[in-house]
């Protein structure tokens, strides 16, 4: 074969490796992996260079132009590697050196023109050759210096990223340095060195391939399915061509009169063999399984499947507010994986049996009221087994799924598979898949993917169920809260009516008492009616419109509700007034708040001790203070427990009085302040805007004044 033939084969192999590596890098870039575009360009240019070297020889103008393009492309890769960690900004000589080296390399094109111009003059050609070699040595030397600085000056964390590319460039340009040195000395290019140059290029491509393999997290070749099969076809075709050419060339070297006949016979026999094997379904199936398990990382394109899954379950692409319900999207997400055109979802009922929850493109499926009994639901919850109904119909029973599958599913030939949805070992659903247009047998990778997707969908369903339960509990909580407020107000009214009934036994003959009793009964009835009218307002914080209210009159009217008795000869509520005080408030709401505060003060005070109600003005606000001499409260209790709903220190108390009082005062644009000392007592201050200054503090308040 000789050195020339060896060089041609090596150049072809290097070109083939460059094409495969370039296509692979392009596919990795399409899938979002970090890939250098400069490296892709340099690899593909090197592949073209190798093909031209093998086809037309190293001295041809096309091969020389490709040599220039290859060196320029690899210089661009060097700059891209410097720019990878920002050192092209701090190492200022990098760009000028690269520009100079590129300019010197472009001088080779000028020398090509001179070679063509002085082709008939041998001394001129010799001189041009020597100048060209010297320029190449200059470019290669500068490039190797840059490669050395690139690797030596890289940070430790960055060296692993540039190691293999630097090694490949060192091999390619290191050999070229020796190649052109010897060419300068011998004034020519020996065929042996040209062949070895092809081998150096092949080694460089191999090193780049190893670097790409090391950059991947899994360390395995994992292109997309389309590009992978295209690359496989290219590899098979290329290998076939190499074998054909090699055998034909070997036969030609044998010589003799039968050479042409032997070549034709070999081509005919090879073609017949290929045509006989390719249509074989058994061979194709075996090849597909072997490639799926051993050559490719996965049969599925998991990135594409995951993106489609998220788009389906998230309702992407559907108009706003028109996305299908969650249960329907769950069915579609599973059906898309197996190419099923329809499906249904069964979910547990209150009794534990499974019932139909949703359909997807399957209106004709006849599902019983109890789609799957307790025994079947327990099987799927315990085993998590994905059932292939075709296997069950054929008599295959792996883990008892034949007994767990109901008869109506087995009888319905359109049902293809059952996929359980498990969340923390609890069955939250069962997807019933319809038969796809092209039915196939589910394999190990289908089961793995469906199992993972089932767990993910189960979490979505469980979260949705939790949100529904939380919303329902919130509604019940709101209802209970309203009822608690109502019961608290009714309790206060019942206390007043009970006190009135006890006093009536002793003062029924007193005309004044009967007059006051009628007023009290009338007020109680009005309050009950107002309570009923206010039920719809609880939770909103709204009150009726405010109006100027005489705080002194309210305080004195409030004190009259607790008259002196035999147990307490002195009045239990004492009113102190520090001047007129007209405030903006809702009178009924204010009386409700003060009645609660006074009653609490009486309950907290020792027997025989009066409660003080003090009316005063404080700047822009009117204040009504309710003061007791009880045991008082700690600062911690006031801060964290006093106004917390449903927390009470009274036996049988509801724990909402203080909370309700504060919210009602806030609704009237006021504030409820508390001062308390343990062992001394407490002061509750209701602060509301004065009527005369309301315009200054709340300019919009005049619109609310009745």
Offer a concise description of the structure.
The protein is an alpha+beta fold and about 700 residues long.
Lay out the secondary structure.
Blueprint: H1 2-30, H2 37-56, H3 61-84, H4 87-90, H5 94-117, H6 122-152, H7 156-186, H8 191-215, H9 225-254, H10 259-277, H11 281-295, H12 302-313, H13 326-338, E1 343-348, E2 354-360, H14 374-383, E3 387-388, H15 389-393, H16 401-404, H17 407-411, E4 415-423, E5 426-434, H18 444-507, H19 511-534, E6 547-550, H20 551-559, E7 573-577, E8 582-585, H21 587-604, E9 611-618, E10 621-628, H22 635-640, H23 657-667, E11 671-677, E12 681-689, H24 694-697
Parallel strand pairs: 7-9
Antiparallel strand pairs: 1-2, 1-5, 3-4, 4-5, 6-8, 9-10, 10-12, 11-12
Helix pairs in contact: 1-2, 1-8, 1-9, 2-3, 3-5, 3-6, 5-6, 6-7, 7-8, 9-10, 12-13, 13-18, 18-19, 21-23
Pfam families: GAF, HATPase_c
EC number: 2.7.13.3
Transmembrane segments: 6-26, 38-56, 62-82, 94-118, 124-148, 160-182, 194-213, 234-254, 260-278
